[in-house]
Every structure is written in C-alpha cells, then in structure tokens.
Amino acid sequence: MHWKAKEKGIRPKSCIMVQLKDRRRASAPQLPHGHGGSAPPPRRANASAVAVAVAGGGWRRRGIEKKGEGDAIFLPVEGAIASAPIPAAKRRRSLVRSVFSRSFTHPDDTISIQFSVYPHHRVEMQEGRKGVPSLLSSQGECIASNITQLIGWTPLIELKNIAKNDGIAARLVGKIEPYQPLSSVKDRSALRLIEDAEERGLISPGTTTLAGVTSGNLGIGVAFVASQKGYKFIAVMPAKLSMDKQILLRYLGVEVILVDPALNGFKGLLDRVEQLKKDIENVFVIDQFTNPANPDAHFRWTGPEIWKDTAGKVDIFVAASGSGGTVTGVGRYLKMKNPSIKLICVEPAESAVISGGEPAFHNIQGIGPGFIPEILDRSQIDEVVTVTTQEAMDMARRLAREEGLLVGISSGANAVAAREENKGKMIVTMFSSGGERYLNSELFAQVKEECININKSF
Ligand SMILES: Cc1ncc(COP(=O)(O)O)c(C=O)c1O
C-alpha cells in the first residue's frame, strides 16, 4: 500500500482516516453515510476487506491487524490533504465530511482500501472543538444554538500551590473538564460516539433507542447529547454505585435500569443490554469499551487542545483509565506530534488489572473497570501508576482547598500520579469531572455528616 499512497502524493506522518469497504458487496465504490465525493471503481473486485495496509506502515506498529467493513482507523500520514488531489469546490463544501476518496489496489489484487480523508483529521489545522473560549473571543453575537456546540476546549491550570507545598520542581498542569456542559470528560466521548454512529448511518433520531452500560459520567453525557439530537436513551447501571449519578440521569429523563452488581459483575450488565436488544426494536448499543469513536474524541479534540494550549511544551501526559478512551486518544495525538512525550496511565491500586493484578472493589469512580478495555492501546503507554482510593480522595480534597478546584476522585488520582521529579518539565493531567457529582459519595462523607449534625440543633 505504501507504494500506492506515495504515488498519490500522500507522505508519511500526518493523519488520514481509512474507511474499509467490502468490495464484494458493491460494484461501485460506496462512501460512508452522508459523505460527499466520489471514487473511481476498483480495478477488480477483491476477495477480502479485512486486511489493512496503509501509508507508512504505522498501522502495524499500532497493532491494528484486522478490521471489518466500515471500521475506521487513524494513521499518521503527514500532509495528506495538502498533497491529495482535492477539488477546491469540494473542499469548501465539506466541513465535516470526507473530501476525497480513492481506491488503492494492492499489487497482488487481493486488498482494496477506500481512503476517506476528513478535514477534521487535518491535524495541522485541527485545534480541538470550539467550546466556550472561542465563543467568547469571536466577534459579534456569541450565542450557542445547541448545548452540544459547547462541548470541548476546556482550560488548563498550573497547580502552583500544590507544587510549592510539596516541593515539586516540575510544572503540574490540569485540564479542567468540569468546564464541559455536563461537567465531565465523557461529554466529548458521548458526542463522538453518537456522531460517529450517525455518520455511518447506523442510527437516526426518532427511530433509534440508544442503550449502554455506564457507571455514570458517559451516561450523563449521552443523556444530554441524545436529548438534543432526538434519541431516547436507556442506561444500564450497577445498583448502589453512585447515587448522585443515578439522580442526575433520572433528572435528565433517562430510563435507568439497575442491575445487582453481585450478579455476574460486568457481564451481568452486558447481558441486560443484550436483553434490551431483544425486547425493543432499533436499539443501538453505545459501547465505550470497544468503539474506536471513543478514543477518537480525544484524538480529535482533547489532544489538539492540550498541544495548542501548552504551545507544544507538554513533556508528560498522565490520565487514569476507565474505558481507556482518554489515555489512548490523547496519547496517540501527543505522541504523533512529539514521540518523546511520556504517557502515564493511572489505575486504582486496589484493582490494578492493567498492571497484571486481580480485579477488586475500589472507590475511584469512573476508572478501573476490572478488565482491560479493547480500545485501551497499551502499546503506547510508557508507565502504569497505581493510586489507592484513599490517596485519590485526599488529593481531591487538597485540590479543593489549596487550588480552589472542585474536582472528582479520579482527578485526585491523576494529580497523585503526576509526580515525576523532572525539574522544569511540564506534566499535564486530566481533571476529569466536577466535585459536585460526588456529594453523596465517600469523598464528601465527613463534611456531609458534619452538616447534618450542625443542622440537627435547629
Ligand atoms: C470521573 C472519570 N474519570 C476518568 C474517567 C476515565 O476516562 P476514560 O473512560 O476516557 O478512560 C472516567 C470515565 O468514565 C470518569 O467518569
């Protein structure tokens, strides 16, 4: 494939999206749902569409071996758009659609791949999503017409007080995801998972019911994106996990199905979703653990935002893994920009599965699901750091008091792990959710009890 890509003027090291098409099913090339442009017919029908070959061979290093029809993978191929033959008119028309598509046929005529290059994968031009700051800084009226437009572009803050108090010589920087419309990093994934399914023609408003297993934050993100796009959403959750998130989901109008966590663990939740697919017509399962659209949200938006706002100075990126979407997507983007950036993955010490341990109960909500998610790209992680629930909560409380940052438990875990003694280096981490989401959790238990007791005397 490399030879063909080169021939077409695609040079290694920027980013294109490759959409695989099974040529046996169509005589004419098909573009993904809703995409403009046309491609020349393949020279001949192909036997298989599951093998992948791409420019530069980066796919092999990323461990991508087999993909099915319509699957998307992201590859570093510099200057793809610049050197690709895209008609100017088509380029102007297509803001979020494919702007060019070509079939490449392997010399042995067994593999055919249709390239769909998306403008928002033009990494040189990509700066993340619009978000609030750009609305504020633009000229004239600054009024969002839909809450989903406000997803993205969260601010960075340097933890000057914690660094000073702990004698840390590195620069500690946190990305404040509580600035998202519904206060967590998962708003990004929710939007991308739904948009991606729409782009593939898998769901349509008013017809499809979305369903998924969630420990809360993804569900809350899906809830508001789904409501704005016209989808019903059913969330399947482990009972007793987070009262705050259950309250919020119901408040947002979501149907919440609770499953006894003692029954088959995570499998019990998946079984309940499978049952829903049998019981209800047109159910689309939002699966953050296997769907590449989840890390894609962070490759497109979170990563570029960090790169731009740090002026490319980030040396180390630290993120706790739940679905693995953040650490995989941001890590992939940052390493593409600068391969020497170190990627640190954080997991609960009580359930250190990525480090080879056994799954067990812990209280760092949103991370450490007890298994290794399919989308977690371990090949690019340089180090896995474990943090106990106690350490994470202590740090979350310190962030509130010393930095004025009201963030959640996993944010505390990230700040504990962002500790490399690298003088002058910049360590960027995620403050993945807002603290108010945990008012009924252990994080606030002591203060809550104090408040209840004080109020009893009145
Ligand atoms: C509070 C919180 N922190 C961290 C994460 C982990 O993010 P990811 O799923 O991208 O690994 C999640 C995921 O739900 C979360 O809710």
From TrEMBL:
Keyword ATP-binding applies: no
Q: Which GO terms describe its biological process?
A: cysteine biosynthetic process
Pathway of this protein? Answer: Amino-acid biosynthesis
From the UniProt annotation, give the residues forming the signal peptide. none
Gene Ontology molecular function: transferase activity
Cofactor(s), names only, from the UniProt record: pyridoxal 5'-phosphate
Identify one Pfam family in the record.
PALP
Q: Which residues form the Tryptophan synthase beta chain-like PALP domain?
A: 147-431
**Region described as Disordered: spans on this chain:** 24-44
Keyword Repressor set for record: no
Which UniProt key words apply to this protein?
Amino-acid biosynthesis, Cysteine biosynthesis, Pyridoxal phosphate, Transferase
Member of which family?
Answer: Belongs to the cysteine synthase/cystathionine beta-synthase family.
Q: Could you identify this protein by its name?
A: Tryptophan synthase beta chain-like PALP domain-containing protein
